[in-house]
Amino acid sequence: MPFLSLPFLLFLPAFFLLYWYVLDSSLPWQNLLVLAGSYLFYAWWDWRFLFLLTGSSLLNYWLGLGLERAARRGARRALVAAGLVQGLGCLLYFKFFNALLPLGISFYTFKTLSYLLDIERGKIRAEKDWVVFFSYVAFFPCLIAGPIDRPGVLIPQLKMRRFWDERQGTDGMRRILWGLFKKVVIADNCVRLTDGIFDHYKAAPASALLFAAFMYTIQLYADFSGYSDMAIGIGSLLGFRVSPNFRHPFFSRNIAEYWRRWHITLTSWLTDYVFTPLNIYFRDYGKAGLILAILINFTAIGIWHGPKWTFAAFGFLHGCYYIPLVLRGRLSRQRGRRGQAGKAGVAGVASVAGTFLLVMLTNIIFRAPSLRDAFGYFRRMLSRSLLTAFPVTEKLQLEVTLAGIMFLFAAEWRQRDKDHPLQIDFIRPFPVRALVYYIFLGLILGFGPARFSEFIYIRF
Q1: What Å distances lie between residue 56 and 76, 131, 135, 418, CA to CA?
Q2: What span, in angstroms and rounded, lies between the C-alpha atoms of 133 and 253?
Q3: Which residues does the annotation mark as catalytic?
């Protein structure tokens, strides 16, 4: 059931009314509604894969209980191994050997794996309430494309009585509105400007290819972070605090800071469960071992997207970008506290622009159908036609999209200390603030395409 669809537009208000006005006095019934609603949401896409989701949840529920009861180290390792084989086996099979990919399998598999690994590490206790555990795995706002909440974040919230908080609910609506703006006004209009150029790059001038690379980078961010904003906002409407997934990544001063701000829940997941064990294993090799751990970790990030050499190359290159930071001993400096997204001054602006350019060029490989096409795109982009003007058939659409992108950057910079740019309580009185929200709604309705494109990350 896509977020941008009539069925979901009917589903969410009905769910909200049942959740808060009928079942608000009973936590077990609320959780059962979360589970039933999540399964309906998922089955709407393809009911056949609901059996895979349910079966994975059931197996990991049993493994978690067995893991907590097991006293012998060997038995505990066997149970964790069984969970890893099931989760990674299904993930690899459907991603590499099956043409039909179950929606959300990458996201809910990482949730079940972290559950077992955290029990093994003693970070959490096994969950005995099956409704709570199944709801954690299938939580519908985050089921299809994240964020990937850890069990220690979401399970305690499912077990705690929830009360309607008007401030949290209002902020959830504002965050949904901001996510819609990014997806509909920016990302979906970028699609119409970039797809034709990428699909026919051999006939386009180099200036058009450079323009498409820039627009695709914005499209990817607006699309994916827009989904995350909507998921977090829907979670807020239901009384949950979902983990943030983006924090102004285009204001990053180096690639390490960028990945601390981009797809945060995936990056932190792989850091904890892949990079850290590898770094410990290779620690006797000094900086060479650290570089090797980084390269393996980022290649895994690339392959997570799918069985294509372009994805593997995308991840490997991002790992390579860390090498200068490691060699200069700057990897762990300036961890990027909240609100320090970039700094004023020539050096700061140059660092931010350089990081963005590096990300933009690597996204060409991410977008390309094959490595051959990626190399062909780069060769064509470096031709003499780089300064050649290219025709634009829909100038109004281009102007609206570029204006939306400029506003996106300005709003995120102005509100970089906030969770999202529409936290504008400083605008008073309320009617003026409400007018801002209506303007956003009007932009969404007026400048959105006739047909929405699917969210990019539901393919992964």
Answers
A1: 19, 14, 13, 37
A2: 39
A3: 305
Kindly state the tokens that stand for 359. Answer: 């990300």
- Report DSSP letters for 240-290, one per residue: --PPP--S-GGG-SSHHHHHHHSSHHHHHHHIIIIIHHHHHHTGGGHHHHH
CA–CA gap between residue 361 and residue 332 (Å, rounded): 25
The CA distance from 15 to 5, in Å, is: 15
DSSP element (H, E) containing 261: helix 255-261
Distance from C-alpha of 6 to C-alpha of 13, rounded to nearest angstrom: 12
Encoded amino acid at 204, one letter: A
Could you tell me the two tokens for 360?
């933009």
* Residues in contact with 263: Cβ distance below 8 Å, sequence separation at least 6, in sequence order: 146, 224, 245, 246
**First-to-final CA distance of the chain:** 16
Question: In degrees rounded to 5, what are phi and psi of residue 242?
Answer: -85, 145
What is the DSSP secondary structure assignment for residue 328, as one 8-state letter?
T
pLDDT one-digit tens code per residue, 1-52: 889 889 999 999 999 999 999 998 899 999 999 999 999 999 998 889 999 9
103 three-state secondary structure: coil
Residues 416-452: pLDDT tens digits? 999 999 998 888 888 999 999 999 999 888 887 667 7
pLDDT in tens, 293-334: 999 999 999 999 988 999 999 999 999 999 999 998 877 655
Alpha-carbon 244 to chain mean position: 9
pTM score, whole prediction: 0.92
Rg (CA), the chain: 23
Cα dihedral 425→426→430→431 (10° resolution): -120
